[in-house]
Amino acid sequence: MPLGGVMGVTIITALEIAGNAEDLQFSIPEKGGKFGILITRGPGHRFKVMLDGPLVLESREKAIAIIKNEVLDPVAHHIAKEELESRLTPEVIEKILADLRATGTAQTFT
């Protein structure tokens, strides 16, 4: 059962995001004035695609809002509700969102 709306985050994907917050990449690809969403694991898992959306959004801010409201916040809420361990802390979420606003890409790995 999906947690979010448009992106439809499954419980398995939520657990993967929450449990591997140090090995994720978030991107907002752009082409022809339209924006999309791409969330992958990092180099530890060869950038395996976890979520992606078509290039249909009108702005980077709309893409960031979807990532925040339909991926990161629901994942964090579900994990907290189930009292599961998570590395997806509020600080990590804020860093991801700040990096996306600045460059359109955020990486949690070093």
Overall description:
The longest helix is centred in the middle third of the chain and has 22 residues. A hairpin with a 7-residue loop joins strand 3 and strand 4. The chain has 3 helices and 5 strands. It has 110 residues and is α+β, with helices and mostly antiparallel strands. The relative contact order is 0.23. Strands 1, 2, 3, 4 and 5 form a 5-stranded antiparallel beta sheet that branches.
Main sheet summary: 5 strands, antiparallel
Please provide the ordered H/E string of secondary-structure elements: HEEEEHHE
| Beta content | 15-25%
Q: Would you tell me the structural class of the helices and strands?
A: alpha+beta
Q: How large, in whole angstroms, is the Cα Rg? A: 13 Å
Q: Quickly count the helices.
A: 3
Stretches where pLDDT is under 50 for at least 5 consecutive residues are none
Mean pLDDT: 89
Count of individual beta strands = 5
Report the helical percentage. 40-55%
General form: globular
Query: How far apart lie the N and C ends?
Result: 32 Å
